[in-house]
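Supplementary Note 3. Input sequence used for the single-chain structure prediction.
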Amino acid sequence: MTIRNPGKLIQNEMTSSVFSRRNFMKAVGAGSFLAVMTEHDFAWSQTAIDGSGEDLSIPSLPSNAVLLNANESPLGPSRAARNAIAEIAAKGGRYDVDGEAAQLAQLFAKQNGLKPEYVSVYAGSSEPLHFAGLAFCSPAHGYVSADPTFEAGSCAARLVDAPVKMVRLRDDYSHDVKAMASADPKAGLVYVCNPNNPTGTVTSYEDIAWLLENKPKGSVILVDEAYIHLSDARSMIDKVVADKDVIVLRSFSKIYGMAGIRCGLAIARPDLLAKLAAYGINAMPITSSAAGRVSLLDENLVPRRKKFFADIRQNLFDWLKANQYGYVPSSTNCCMIDTKRPGQEIVQALQEKSIYIGRVWPAMPTYVRVSIGTQGEMDLFKTAFHQAMQAKPKSLV
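The predicted structure, written as C-alpha cells, is reproduced below.
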C-alpha cells in the first residue's frame, strides 16, 4: 500500500499521517500492513503541508502544471513498451499465464551474466528497498545512509526501531564510504544510492567496492541504481555475480519512463532475496513485466534518452552559470540549486505559478531539487525561478 499524503509527521524523513506509529508497529508485527514509500509520496510531501505543520490535501493540479518534483520522465514508456502493454492487455483477466515476470527476470539475468534465481521482479524498486530495511535492521542492527539521500529505507528501518545513522556527503557530494563503514559497528544495512538522489552525483565503483570489503561484519550493502543509466557510473552487479553481501536495485521508473506502471528489480544472492521475499511480493501486473522486457530489448533506448536528458540538463547548467546561481553538478535527471534562502520559499513561490519542484532536505536547507523535464518545461521553470529569486527573501521583508 502506498500513502498519498504523508502529512504532518514528516520531519527529516517521511512518516505517514494516515496511521500512527503504534499502528504501524502493530501491523508490521502482524504482517498485515507494510507502508511502501515511493518517490511520489516524498515529492508531494511539502506540497501537502503548510507552514503551521497542518495537513493539507494535495491540490488539484491545474491544466498547465509543470511537474518537476518527482524525477519522472516526461517521455513516458517507449513506443515498443506501449505496444507491448496494449497487446497483452487482453490477457489481463488472468494472472501472468505466460510467465511475463519470469521472462523479464531471465532476460535481465542473461544480459548481465547472472543466474535467473539472482533476480527478483517487483512493482518498482521501492518495495525491495523497504523490505530490506525490515529484513536486515532491528534494534540491535542499525541502518546507515548518506545525508542527504532517498529516505525510504530509513523510514522502514525506523519502523522496526533500528538506529539510523546518516553520514554527510563529502565536499564533492560523493558518499563518504569510510565514515559510513565506521558509523555503526553493528549495522544491518548500509544504503548507497548511486547516482545519489537528490544530488545526482556519482560515487566511484572503487569506493563502493572498498565499502563492501570493509563494512561492519554481518551487514549487507544495498546499492540503489535507479538512476544509473542516466550517468556513466559503473554498476555493482559484478559483485552480485561474485556472491558478495550486496543487493543491487534497478528501476524502470526513470530512464525507461515507467514510474506510473511500476516495475523494478532486486539483484542479489538467492539467500538475500529470500529474506526480502519473506515480507511478500505482490503478483506483478503482466503489463509492466511485458513493458519492462521489451524496453530491455531496445539497444538504442538508453543511449538515446541519456542524451536527451544530458542535453537539457547542460542547457540548464549553462543558464544557471550565466545568472550566477549555484548548483550541484549532476549526472542524472535532477539537480540541486542553491537559493541562498530557505528553499521552501522558492518551492512555494513556484507552486503559485503552477510549477512544482522537489522538496528540501534538512542537510541542505537552502537547496531545492529540480527534475529535468522537456526543454519547454525547463524554459518555463527558468523564467519562474528567476522571478522568484529576484523577490526579496521573506526573512528580510
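The longest strand covers residues 246-251. The chain has a mean pLDDT of 89.
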